Automatic annotation (TrEMBL):
Residues 14-69 form the TfoX N-terminal domain. This is TfoX N-terminal domain-containing protein. It holds the Pfam family TfoX_N.
Amino acid sequence: MASHKDYLDYILDALSLLDEITYRSMMGEYILYYRGKIFGGIYDDRFLVKETPSSKTMMHSIKKECPYEGAKEMILIEEIDNKEFLKELIENMYEELPFPKKESKRLYD
């Protein structure tokens, strides 16, 4: 089941205290970026973030879910209406996240 654009808009509004939030649509789901780093995504209308030391520490109770079959589990965010909490969570996660790997260009003859 793909995620709905309305749910993406709802999550982007919840993240509105953060500058530089972007997203990328991928196979009916949405990958979320903060300042160029992937911190989570929307999968089957669920807001999931990567597991980092900060995300584990800041969450009162952690519920992990798989974004899709075969993927690494991520943390389900249920406190969506708490914009201040989301801002602090994503900002704290930022330093612990890697920048995405650059895709290498293939040269063909």
